[in-house]
Structures are given as structure tokens and as C-alpha cells.
Design a protein that fits this description.
The chain has 217 residues and is an all-alpha fold. The chain has 2 domains: 112 residues, Tetratricopeptide repeat domain (Serine Threonine Protein Phosphatase 5, Tetratricopeptide repeat, Alpha Horseshoe); 82 residues, Tetratricopeptide repeat domain (Serine Threonine Protein Phosphatase 5, Tetratricopeptide repeat, Alpha Horseshoe), CATH 1.25.40. It is 80% helix and 0% strand. The chain contains 12 helices and no strands. The chain is elongated.
Amino acid sequence: MRIISLLAISLLMLSLTVLLSCKTPELSGGIIALEAGRIDEAIDLFQQARDKQPENPEVYMYLAKAYANKQMWEEAIEALDNGEGLDPKFDEDIKLAREELWVKIYNDFAIPVYVEHDYETAAEYFELASRADPTKAESFNSLGLCYGILEKPEKAVEAFKKAVELQPDNVDFLTNLSSAYLDIGDTEKAAEILFVLAEKEPDNAEVQYKVARSLHL
């Protein structure tokens, strides 16, 4: 058992050595500090690495991760934005980094305050999540729900529109968008969506009711 443990440690050290061997001292030092939980030191080193290699997307990914550890969401999002598109080899890594940041903001911060009915704060977190990973329709739908509760129907419409753009066949998102259009008095656009939904959901009483409502407004 001791031999196996020593072998595992040796392999881990070897992997870390290989990982760091092709990196600048600042980036290598930042990675070590980040893994050790010395986040402020890691951020400082990653910033130095960024200044030396502003075209290196890997620097921005690690910088975003360090910022996220400090709940510096704006800075983390900006780092990923700056790293995106610099090198096609890192496109998938940037995508995964965005998803990781999105999960952290959406699941760990936005949802809990939404459940506690703190809709103002929830809206702020959902908006951050939507910027962390703009491909996640759930962020925009949840943001629209918050705006609806907060009686900001115009903002709700814009949020639901983005959700529908990402998932045009999602019945829940379409229903939410049609309701938001009704809230701002745009019965024509609401009806367009509802008629499509009525064909897709002939047994959905709520949809059928909203179609009837739109016709009489």
C-alpha cells in the first residue's frame, strides 16, 4: 500500500512538472499558488503573466479561475472574454471554463437567493451567469422570471427573447415570452407565439386559455 501511495505521489509530481515546464515562471508560480489556495498571490502572478503574454489564452483561463475563487465575477468574465479567440487550440478549454464559471454562479449563488425570494439579487446573479456562458438559455429564462416578479416587463421580454433564440422549441420559454408580451400589452406578438404553442400543445389548458385571452384583449 505504501509503495502504491508513493507511486501515485511520484506520478502526480511528474505530471505537475510536465505541466509547468512549458510555462513562464509567473504562470507556473500562479498555478502552484492557486493549487495551494494562495489566491491573492495566484492572481498577482497571473496578472504578471498576462502582462508578459497578452496573447496567451491559458493565462486568462487561470486568471478567471483565480478570480472566481474570490467571487470576483466581473473580472472572471472579462478574463474569459479577453482569452476567447486568441488561439483555436484553446477554444474548447475556454468553453469548458465558461461552463464551469456558469455552474458556480448559477447553481451556487443565483438559485439559492431566488429560492429565498430575493429576486433583485437573484436577477443580478442570473445576469452574471448569462454573461459567463451566453449559450445557456436557462440563465435568460430565469432572469426573465425575476424581472416579471419585479414588475419589469420590458426587461422580462428581452430576457425571454434571448432564451427562445437559444432554444426556439422550448415550450416553457415560449409560454413565458408570450406572457411577457401580454404584460406589456403587445397582444399581436403574444398571439403569434400562442398560436404556435396551441398547435404544439393542444391539450395544454393554460396555453389554450392564454390564446383565448389574447384574442379578447
